[in-house]
Structures are given as C-alpha cells and as structure tokens.
Specification:
With about 220 residues, the chain is an alpha/beta fold. It has one domain: Alanine racemase (TIM Barrel, Alpha-Beta Barrel), CATH 3.20.20. It has nine helices and eight strands. The protein has helices at about 5-10, 30-35, 50-55, 90-105, 125-135, 135-140, 160-180, 200-205, 215; strands at about 20-25, 40-45, 65, 85-90, 110-115, 145-150, 185-190, 210. Strands 7-6-5-4-3-2-1-8 form an eight-stranded parallel β-sheet. Strand 6, helix 7 (about 160-180) and strand 7 (about 185-190) form a beta-alpha-beta unit. It is globular. The mean pLDDT is about 95. Bound molecules: pyridoxal-5'-phosphate. Pyridoxal-5'-phosphate (PLP) binds near residues 46, 68, 195, 212 and 214. Pyridoxal-5'-phosphate binds near residues 23, 67, 68 and 214.
Amino acid sequence: MNIKENLSQIKSQLPEYVNLVAVSKTKPVSDLMEAYEAGQRIFGENKIQEMAEKWEEMPKDIQWHMIGHVQRNKVKYMAEFVNLIHGVDSLKLLKEIDKQAKKHDRLIDCLFQIKIAEEDSKFGLSEENVKTIIASSEFSELENIKIIGLMGMATFTDNMQQVENEFKFLKSAFNNLKRHTTLNFKLETLSMGMSGDYKLAIDCGSNMVRVGSSIFGSRNYN
Ligand SMILES: *Cc1c(COP(=O)(O)O)cnc(C)c1O
C-alpha cells in the first residue's frame, strides 16, 4: 500500500471543485502522516475519541471532519477543534453542538445527513424533516452552528443503478433545499461518494467525497 501514490492517483481524477476527505478511521497516525506529507489536509473519522487523540498528536493545520453517527454526550470532546460534522440528523443534536461550540466561542459547520439508502441501519432525515427543522424558532436561535450542506450514504450494494438513483435523489433534495437560505442555513456542500462509488457520485453532483480504503487500504476491525 503506497498511500502517497494512491492519493495522487485519486486526486488526478477529481475535478478541482471536489474536496477530498481522507477517511482515516482505524488507521495509525503514521499512515495519516504519510498522507499529510503528501499534502492531504482534510481527514475524516467516525469515532470522536479516536479523532480527538489523533488531533492532539498531529499538526494543527489539519481539518478534522466527523463523518460518523454522533452521540450527543460526546460532542464536547470535539467542539474545540472539529471543522465539519457530516452526520447531523436531529435538532436535539444540533442544539448540543451549538451549546458546546459556544463554550469555545466557535462557529461549527455541519451537514444534515439525509437518508437515501433503503437499509434501516442508515441514519438520516428526509427533505421534509429538514424543512420543519429550519422553519422552527429553535433552529433560528442557534448562533454557533451553520448548516452548509447535505451528506448521504448510498445502500451497500453492487447494484450501481440503485446507487445512482439514491445519489440523484440526494442531489434533488439538495437543489430543492438550496432555495431556502437563512443566517445559519446555506447549502453549498454535497458530501456523497466513497471508495467504490465516488466517480458516480461526482457525476451525480457531489462536491465532497469521503474516501478511505482506496487511500489507506482495507480496514482491520479486530
Ligand atoms: C468509512 C466511511 C467512508 C469511507 O469508506 P471507504 O469505502 O473505505 O472509502 C465514507 N463515509 C463514511 C460515512 C464512512 O463511515
């Protein structure tokens, strides 16, 4: 596994407007440093504690993205440094992020996670849920968070037609919701696509891809 080569190979295939999140969950800091030395500055993790440990050890010009499901009681461990939280799926969670961001005098950018997969295991909101949240007075009172986009995860399947349909569904929700802009809601980022489907995702309108195994190799969860 040559991380530097993998990175440059992937980056050569990305249009310049597409941001690459290097998904480094389960990987040691030495692997992340290889990517860092090759110029990578955005890293994605799915466990808050693991991300906080890596943040402490690594250079401070890295942008840390939380891409996993967020437990409210752990938001406090990342509020000081996290750059983008991809998986926001409730107003309750957003209020906690706002509260913790305030303690550090920060504005934390977030994405609403939209449920696009058929699998019940995947989290997320519907377009209607988002409309309800952003129309509420509780949401408009949140001054330390800003929703800058949407995130989605397609079904885990070899059926690329299904994956394409799910990506197109998310892109259309993005276009619809983009018409609504408030002080803390302005959609610009569409986070969709992983190692197996990022090219398709870009063709469907993604401007942020989250790529792990194609950069760092397969993960070992033992
Ligand atoms: C692990 C993960 C990825 C990266 O998956 P790969 O298939 O290794 O590229 C992307 N997004 C989320 C939310 C993940 O949990």
